[in-house]
Design brief:
The protein folds into two domains: 166 residues, Glycogen Phosphorylase B (Rossmann fold), CATH 3.40.50.2000; 64 residues, no CATH class. 40% of the residues lie in helices and 16% in strands. A seven-stranded parallel sheet has the order 3-2-1-4-5-6-7. The longest helix has 18 residues.
Length: 253
C-alpha cells in the first residue's frame, strides 16, 4: 500500500527532517511512502523514497488517488500563529484525503496556536474525521479532549530515532544533557547570555555534562538525522514509546 506523508519537509528545518526520518523508520515494511517535499530531489536523494513537490497541486491530487493512506507526519501543522495559510494548506490536503476515502492519520501532532475562530472550527472538523490521532503534548491532548476526539498521547517520536552513534559520547561523564539551539529573532544576544549563565549554574548544581550538538542553520536531511539521534542518546535510560497510531491504522491489505 502507498501512504502520502505530509509535513514541513524539504525546507531545511532540522526538527521536521528528524520527524520525517523517524516516521520512515516506523512505517510498516509493506507501506510505500510518498513524501510531499519543498525539495523533492534532495528528499529522494537523502532518504531513498519517492517525493513530490508539496506545492504541485495536480501531481498531489494524482498521488492521493493512487494512495491508500495520508499521514500528517509530525509537528504543529494546524496553527495560524506564523501564517493563516498553514491550516488552509495542511487541513485542505487532509480534507481531500478524507473525502477520497483514504486512511488518514494525524501523527505526533501539536495543535495551535489557533487565533482565528474559523481555524479552530476547521481544525476540529479535520481531526474529528481522522482514522487515528496522536499528539505529543498535554496542551494538545486537553484540546482534543474538549472536542471529544479520541487520541493517543505519546512522547515526541524523534526520541526513538535510530542513527549513527556520536563518537566518544559514551566516554563522557553521566548524566549527559544536550542543548540544541537554532537561530530565532527572540534569541537575542542578551537572552543567549542569560541562557548560558543558567546552564553554567545548572551544570555546577547537578554535575551534568552539557554539550550543544553543532547543527548549521542550513543543515538538512542526513546531518539532522545524526544530530537528533545524538541528542536521543544522551541519557541511556531515556526510552520513547512508539506512536502506535501509524502501525495500528496501516494493516496489511
Amino acid at each position: 500500500m502507498q501512504a502520502v506523508l505530509c509535513g514541513y519537509y524539504g525546507k531545511g528545518n532540522g526538527g521536521d527532517e528528524a520527524l520525517l526520518a523517524t516516521l520512515l523508520q516506523m512505517l510498516p515494511s509493506h507501506v510505500r511512502p510518498l513524501v510531499l517535499s519543498g525539495n523533492p530531489a534532495e528528499t529522494e536523494r537523502c532518504y531513498g523514497v519517492e517525493a513530490c513537490d508539496r506545492m504541485a497541486i495536480l501531481p498531489i491530487l494524482r498521488s492521493l488517488k493512487q494512495s491508500d493512506a495520508f499521514i500528517w507526519g509530525g509537528g504543529s501543522l494546524m496553527q495560524d500563529a506564523t501564517s493563516p495559510v498553514n491550516p488552509l494548506y495542511y487541513g485542505g490536503l487532509m480534507t481531500l484525503a478524507q473525502q477520497q476515502g483514504l486512511r488518514t492519520i494525524a501523527w505526533a501532532q501539536g495543535i495551535g496556536p489557533l487565533k482565528q475562530s474559523w481555524a479552530r472550527w476547521f481544525t476540529r472538523q479535520v481531526f474529528a474525521n481522522c482514522s487515528a490521532v496522536s499528539v505529543r503534548d498535554v496542551g494538545s491532548a486537553k484540546q482534543l479532549t474538549a472536542w471529544n476526539i479520541p487520541f493517543t498521547l505519546a512522547p515526541d517520536p524523534v526520541w526513538a530515532l535510530q542513527g549513527s552513534p556520536l563518537p566518544g559520547l559514551w566516554e563522557l561523564p553521566a548524566p549527559r544533557i544536550a542543548v540544541a539551539l537554532r537561530s530565532h529573532p527572540h534569541l537575542t544576544a542578551e537572552r543567549l547570555q542569560s541562557l548560558t549563565a543558567a546552564l553554567v549554574s545548572f551544570q555546577k548544581a547537578t554535575q551534568a555534562y552539557i554539550f550543544a550538538p553543532s547543527v548549521p542553520t542550513d543543515a538538512r536531511f542526513g546531518d539532522c538525522r545524526n544530530g537528533a539521534s545524538s541528542v536521543a542518546q544522551c541519557q541511556s535510560n531515556s526510552h520513547a514509546q512508539r506512536s502506535s497510531a501509524v502501525e495500528r491504522c496501516l494493516p496489511r491489505s
